[in-house]
Design brief:
The complex is a heterodimer of chains A (112) and B (107).
Chain A: E1 5-7, E2 10-13, E3 19-24, E4 31-37, E5 44-50, E6 53-57, E7 64-68, E8 74-78, E9 87-94, E10 102-103, E11 107-111
Parallel strand pairs in A: 2-11
Antiparallel strand pairs in A: 1-3, 3-8, 4-5, 4-9, 5-6, 7-8, 9-10, 9-11
Chain B: E1 4-6, E2 11-14, E3 19-25, E4 33-38, E5 45-50, E6 54-57, E7 60-65, E8 70-75, E9 84-92, E10 94-97, E11 101-106
Parallel strand pairs in B: 2-11
Antiparallel strand pairs in B: 1-3, 3-8, 4-5, 4-9, 6-7, 7-8, 9-10, 9-11
The chains are: A mainly beta (112), B mainly beta (107).
Chain lengths: 112, 107
Amino acid sequence: ETGVTQSPTHLIKTRGQQVTLRCSSQSGHNTVSWYQQALGQGPQFIFQYYREEENGRGNFPPRFSGLQFPNYSSELNVNALELDDSALYLCASSRDVEYEQYFGPGTRLTVT
Amino acid sequence: RKEVEQDPGPFNVPEGATVAFNCTYSNSASQSFFWYRQDCRKEPKLLMSVYSSGNEDGRFTAQLNRASQYISLLIRDSKLSDSSTYLCVSPRGKLIFGQGTELSVKP
């Protein structure tokens, strides 16, 4: 077990709704990264938070937003859900920006 | 060209076989790499880090060839439990994943 937890494990939403996914980082880690993984693909980087500040963003539209809290847990928010947002959303934490990242079990989002 | 590319496989090998995967990368500034494995519908798990020319951990050996810009992963004496998808990753803050190589080890 990595010590990284995510909630919820599964979620079903309809197109146009908004969703918030949560991640608790491993103890001692100050960096959290979020990834989207569609079926049959490798994870795609959404953004990274380091000490409560966004530290890099992938090729995702602004309706994907996030937060990191003082305890280094994090949220991913997605507005105006689209069918293509259906995917496994992975959170990974690391003890600093350039170190190995350890993944949580993911949240499987289905948009209908 | 993708920043990290892998042969998607699948590689089907018998137990006890030796199997090697290659991964090519395009950014010559990349200094280190990771190999993760990802079982079906689970999260990626860190397998090995490669910070210099190579790294060995039991049956697993990873090598980095900077001149040719590729990383390899060698698995000796394959076990059934090695069946998984192996992801080559370039860490530059964010992790750039290859699409993964599927390995199936058969009895």
